[in-house]
């Protein structure tokens, strides 16, 4: 899929963020792909509202926080959750996991260590899932 098609798939809030921060686009794309692949590697699937979903949000946020900075990561992640018809409880769950991940990302560790810290957060009850 080309960059224009990927941009068209973003929410309006995400488009505004990327347009204002164009350097972030490849970082966001790589981080999203990495988070999905690692989730499947660890959990065997990429679920919805389960522990794998909580982990993916945490790890994605950790990668963005490390690579874009804490505040830019949270700005994007909040934009990502701002779309019509996003169920309130799912949004709260995702944002809670994003904040845990953004905090973890401030440690500036390599990918495998960020993933390990997010997995420990999931197993230790710090992440929210249904």
Automatic annotation (TrEMBL):
Domain of life: Bacteria
Domain DUF6973: 18-122
Pfam families for this protein: DUF6973
Name of the protein in its database record: DUF6973 domain-containing protein
Origin species: Hafnia alvei
């Amino acid at each position: 899929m080309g960059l224009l098609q990927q941009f068209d798939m973003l929410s309006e809030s995400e488009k505004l963020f990327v347009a204002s921060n164009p350097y972030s686009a490849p970082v966001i794309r790589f981080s999203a792909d990495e988070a999905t692949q690692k989730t499947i590697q660890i959990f065997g699937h990429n679920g919805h509202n389960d522990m794998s979903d909580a982990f993916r949000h945490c790890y994605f946020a950790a990668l963005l926080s490390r690579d874009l900075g804490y505040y830019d990561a949270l700005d994007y992640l909040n934009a990502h959750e701002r779309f019509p018809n996003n169920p309130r409880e799912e949004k709260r769950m995702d944002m809670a996991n994003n904040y845990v991940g953004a905090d973890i990302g401030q440690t500036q560790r390599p990918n495998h260590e960020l993933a390990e810290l997010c997995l420990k957060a999931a197993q230790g009850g710090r992440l929210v899932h249904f």
